[in-house]
Amino acid sequence: MRFINPIPFVSDIRRSKGFYQARLGLRVLEDFGSFVLFETGFAIHEGQSLEQTIWGEPSSCREPYGRRNLLLYFEDEHLDRAFETISPHVELIHAIEQQSWGQRVFRFYDPDGHAIEIGEPQLLGNPPD
Question: Which of 34, 38, 62, 114 is the most buried (most CB within 10 A)?
Answer without folding.
Answer: 114
